[in-house]
Every structure is written in C-alpha cells, then in structure tokens.
Design goal:
The chain contains nine helices and 15 strands. The chain is an alpha/beta fold. The strands form three sheets. It has a nine-stranded mixed beta sheet, with helices on both faces. Helix 1 (29-39) packs across helix 7 and helix 7 (249-263) crosses helix 8. The two termini are 26 Å apart.
C-alpha cells in the first residue's frame, strides 16, 4: 500500500477566454499523488483532514471513485483550502492560496500506519504549514524508522513559507528519514540558492550523503533526472504531448514513480540499475504527459497509459 499524506484542496483554474472565468478542480499535491498511484493500479490510501463542506464531500468522492482508500481520512467542520491558479504564456501554473483555518491544517497524528504500508509520501503545504507539518514530520520519522520506504516532494510554495531559513533547516532535518526526494528544478533553486545546473546537481548529490537513496529532479520540457546513492545518474526526455496546462504534472511523476517501485517490489532505490532507473523515469514521463494534456490535475489510468505506449 502507498499512503500519501497532506492537504486536499480545491484549485480554481482558468476556464474562460483570457482566464477571466474560474472553474473548481479537486486537488492538492499529496491528493493528486494518491489519485495517480491508485489509477495506475496500486493499492493506495490518502491521509489528511478533510472538511465536511460540499467541497470536502466531493474530494472524498473523487478519491473513492479512483480506488483510493479513504479510511485514514479525518473530517472536520472547518472550510476546504482554496488555491487560485493562473497560467503563464507557457501554460505553467502559478498559485495563490486561501489556507487560514482550513480543515487540513488541524489533522492529528493517526499513530502507526497499517502493517500493509510499503510507501509513505509526504510534501507540499502539509510540510510547510503548522500545526499539520509537525504531524507529517512525526509520521515521516516514525514510518522510516520501522522500514517503510519514505518519499518527499517539497513542492515549494514560496509565498506560503513565512520563514524560508527555518523551512530550509527543517528540510535538511528530514533527509535522514527520507529514502526518495522528488522535486522540480525550481524547488531546488529555492532550497539551495543555486542557479547553475551543475551547482543544483551538486546540491542534490550532497543530499544523498544525508540519507536519501535517490533524488528525482524534474526539469519541465527538458525531462527529468535521477541520481542514486550508488552512483547511477540517468536523464530521460519528456514524452511528446500537447500541453494544456502543467497542473499536477509533478504529482503524477511522484505517484507514477512510487507505483513503479511497488509494482517491481523495490524497497531500496539504491539497488536500481541505470536501465531500471530509465524504465521508471520513462514510465513517469508518459504518465505526466497524459496529465498535462488535460485541464486540471487528471492523472491517467493504467489502461490509458497502456494505450498511449
């Protein structure tokens, strides 16, 4: 089982000419990861606190329709977090959030996850905002210590991080408990201050010395790379597609990578050969290509992916 923990929210995305109209899309980083993994055929659960409002009901219903186990989800009367999405001329998404007093921030520690849990994935605002961040941090450390493969996608939302230096220090403190880090090149720039690609890769390499077995770096149109603690360094191009928007692309990569690892019974990323790493990244690239070809975060099913390849 893959458990994805973090916020569930509603994206308000451009729906009309010139982006003047906004339409609701159910999402959130970890939420999208859970959708992607489940649709690709992996037993998946989602953990968060979700509102009892109409948005919250719809968020749960969409998870269940995609085969996600919602038994770990907590409910509360607080409102659902909202994100307003704008698209630039390259269809890249930019976000502003309405998060104060929302249900996801009041999640409580569920204790040890089910024994069937093979992977725990955390990230995005769940690791940035308090008091929920301390819950996910505790889960991350506890599950890592008991042998669960842990994955982190920081998915930086800089406008929501009040103290960047504190966040960067906390990120460093998580690394000994993280087996796989997945992040975008923009996230890496924000975390490290580096702008040169070689300096970014050097920083990612230094993270491997702190505990992670692998780092996946997504580079938009330039593809994605994976470096492992065993010295493997692989880059694959993006899969050809017509881009509608990039909402959920990175989340799909995360879900697809974790689904590939579980499907192939990999518990240690460092044992992967260069060929294995390439196969995994190409699988994730194909999945992400389907997502960006559609409006909003709409990861593919396994059947859709088989038809594509």
């Amino acid at each position: 089982m893959i458990v994805s923990g973090g916020e569930a929210l509603v994206d308000l995305v451009p729906a009309g000419a010139g982006g003047t109209l906004l339409a609701p899309r159910l999402g959130g980083g970890p939420y999208n990861v859970a959708l992607a993994a489940a649709r690709l055929g992996m037993p998946t659960a989602f953990f968060s606190r979700v509102s009892t409002d109409a948005f919250g009901d719809a968020l749960l219903r969409r998870l269940e329709e995609s085969g996600v186990d919602t038994s770990l989800v907590q409910r509360g009367p607080e409102p659902t977090m909202l994100a307003v999405v704008t698209l630039d001329e390259d269809s890249n998404a930019h976000y502003s959030f309405y998060a104060e007093g929302t249900a996801d921030r009041l999640v409580t520690d569920p204790g040890p996850l089910p024994d069937s849990t093979e992977v725990l994935s955390v990230g995005t605002l769940g690791m940035a905002l308090q008091p929920c961040a301390q819950v996910y941090e505790a889960m991350l450390r506890r599950e890592s210590q008991r042998g669960v493969l842990t994955a982190l996608d920081p998915n930086i939302r800089a406008d929501m991080i009040a103290d960047p230096d504190d966040y960067r220090a906390r990120f460093a403190s998580w690394l000994p408990s993280v087996h796989l880090v997945k992040l975008s090149v923009e996230d890496a720039r924000w975390l490290t201050g580096a702008t040169d690609p070689d300096d970014i890769m050097a920083a990612a390499q230094s993270w491997l010395d702190e505990g992670p077995q692998g780092v996946v770096l997504t580079k938009g149109a330039e593809g994605m790379s994976l470096i492992t603690s065993a010295g493997v360094d692989v880059t694959v191009p993006t899969a050809p597609t017509k881009v509608v928007d990039t909402v959920g692309a990175g989340d799909t990569v995360q879900g697809a990578v974790l689904a590939w690892l579980v499907c192939n019974r990999v518990k240690d990323v460092s044992v992967l050969s260069a060929g294995d790493c390439r196969d995994m990244l190409e699988f994730a690239a194909e999945a992400a290509a389907v997502t960006v070809s559609r409006s909003g975060a709409e990861p593919p099913t396994a059947e859709e992916l088989r038809k594509r390849v």
